[in-house]
Design brief:
Elements: E1 2-14, E2 20-28, E3 30-35, E4 46-51, H1 53-56, H2 59-63, E5 69-72, H3 84-87, E6 88-92, E7 97-99, E8 102-109, H4 112-119, E9 124-139, E10 145-161, E11 198-203, E12 206-211, H5 212-236
Parallel strand pairs: 4-10, 5-10
Antiparallel strand pairs: 1-2, 1-9, 2-8, 3-4, 5-6, 6-8, 7-8, 9-10, 11-12
């Protein structure tokens, strides 16, 4: 049976060639909800499907994440040699790892239109894959109820989408590419910098862009400096 799950992208940077490179969580173990029609049970409004960790992180399943085509939205059918050229905008890499209860993969977007879609807010990711599904009520080890279990997961493609089923942590990046916030124009001199949430602080009359942690450190140092100046003034008095 074919499935489409959604997830998101982090640690984003632009290469000198203009490609978008990232490292992303793309799947997780646990219970996820599907429409009954999505899993062959139109008689059920929603189906809680359980993915056991030993199925999600099985060696064959993990290998299937490597070198998968990346598409913009899901194509009308699974990707193969016949339609790859028409739908692929990039691909996943080979360093597939387990990260807690999630699967993390490197990826690259190489198509300019796909990168533009990401810049405009299409940030989340959705796996297209096949799996066996066995219906039957049960309870997971952590107490969640389910209606079916997924086994034999095999990945086919990874789609860039607007909304992720697995949650907002499954996305490409947390910030925006450096550039004009109104036009979206990328500042080419800074495109190799990793993406993160930043803020601007004033240091000796100069605007400095830094992370939240950097801003906290600067604020503390400015406070310590002011305290030292006051102590020196008091001593002189």
């Amino acid at each position: 049976m074919q499935f489409r799950d959604r997830v998101s992208v982090g640690a984003v940077r632009r290469t000198a060639d203009g490609y978008l490179v990232a490292d992303a969580k793309v799947a997780r173990a646990g219970v996820q909800e599907y429409l009954g029609s999505e899993v062959g049970r139109p008689d059920m409004q929603r189906v809680r499907v359980y993915r056991p960790a030993d199925e999600v992180f099985a060696a064959d399943a993990m290998r299937s994440y490597a070198y998968r085509p990346v598409t913009v939205d899901h194509p009308s059918r699974m990707v193969d040699a016949e339609n790859w050229k028409g739908v692929a905008s990039g691909q996943t890499g080979g360093e597939v790892v387990r990260d807690g209860d999630t699967v993390r993969v490197p990826l690259v977007l190489m198509d300019a239109a796909a990168i533009k879609a990401w810049e405009r807010g299409k940030r989340e990711l959705s796996m297209g894959y096949t799996a066996e599904i066995v219906f039957g009520d049960g309870v997971t080890p952590d107490g969640q109820h389910y209606d079916a279990i997924q086994t034999q997961l095999r990945m086919n493609h990874l789609a860039l989408v607007d909304k992720a089923r697995a949650g907002s942590e499954f996305r490409i990046g947390d910030g925006c590419l450096p550039g004009d916030p109104e036009t979206g124009t990328v500042n080419q001199s800074r495109k190799e910098k990793p993406m993160s949430n930043t803020r601007t602080v004033l240091v000796d009359g100069l605007s400095v862009e830094t992370t939240d942690a950097g801003a906290q450190a600067i604020t503390k140092l400015q406070g310590d400096l002011q305290a030292s100046r006051q102590a020196l003034s008091d001593a002189n008095t």
